[in-house]
Amino acid sequence: MNISYTPRGDYLLPNIRLKEPPPESIKSLGRYGLLRQKYLKEHRTVYYNQLLLSERLFPHLRETEELANARLTQVMTVLTSKNLLPDKTTDPMGWTAAMNALKAQADEMVLNELIYN
Predict the structure, then answer these.
(1) Quick check: 114 and 32 in contact, CB under 8 A?
(2) How wide is the angle at C-alpha 44 spanned by C-alphas 39 and 49, nearest 5°?
(3) Which one, of 6, 116, 99, lies nearest residue 64 by Cα?
C-alpha cells in the first residue's frame, strides 16, 4: 500500500481521505437524525469519530431517524388513547392545545430515549 505524505511543519501527515457520503443520504436525514449527529459530535466525540471513520455514521443516523419516528407514532397513539381530548368539532382550539401538549410530551420522551443517550 503506497501512502503519500504532506509535510506540515516538522511532521509528515498521511494523505488519507474518507469517502464522501452521497448527497441524498445527508438530505434524507430529518430532525431526529440531525439532532443525534449534533449530540454525538458535541458530547460523545470519540464515538462520533469511530462511527465517522468506519463509515457507519450515516447508516446510524438514518436508523435513529426511523426508530425515533416509529417511537413517536407509538407514544402518540398511547397518549391519545389514555387522555381525554376535547371534541375537535366543538372546541378546535382546545383540541389543538391538547394535541400540542401531547406531542411535546411524546417528543421529549423520544429525545431522552433515543437521541440523548
Answers:
(1) yes
(2) 105
(3) 116
Assign 5 to helix, strand or coil: strand
Rounded to whole angstroms, the Cα distance separating 7 from 11 reads 6
pTM, two decimals, is 0.77
C-alpha cell at 84: 381525554
pLDDT tens track of the chain, all 117 residues? 688 899 999 999 988 877 776 666 666 789 999 999 999 999 999 999 999 888 899 999 999 999 999 999 999 999 999 999 999 999 999 999 999 999 999 999 999 999 998
Which grid cell is 75?
A: 407514544
b vs e for 46-73, b when ≥16 Cβ sit within 10 Å of the residue's Cβ?
eebeebbeeeebbebbeebbebbeebbe
